[in-house]
Request: fold
Amino acid sequence: DNTVSNRLYGLVVGSGNEYRLCDCPIGTFSFFGDVDVALYADFAKGRARYRLEDRTYALSYKRNMFSLAPGFNAKVGFNWYIYEAISIRLGYNAMALFGTVASPRPIDFNAGGMDPGYDKDIFRLFHGLDFGVGLVW
Reply:
């Protein structure tokens, strides 16, 4: 097993705006956009372990690491305000993290010198569609 967990703590600054496109008999349509930039302190914990299947014997290697990881988040999409307290949102969200810690190479088979390689320059991109229904009462 070779597990790396990243705990990110930091400051986020962002801005967003919404622009009304039209008022129709079926509701109001608008376009929105949000942008955030962040600077995170990445407290990473690496755990590498050899173990037998019967769990009688195990070797482990633990290491704590620190790095600064800048981040970026952007959202764009459309809102449909059907009625006064009912809205539907469809959008796209992308979040990028730079400089996080990972161990892309597997550990070697030398149990006596177990020291997996950790890279601190990993780029991560999380993106996808965003859909939501809002009911306010």
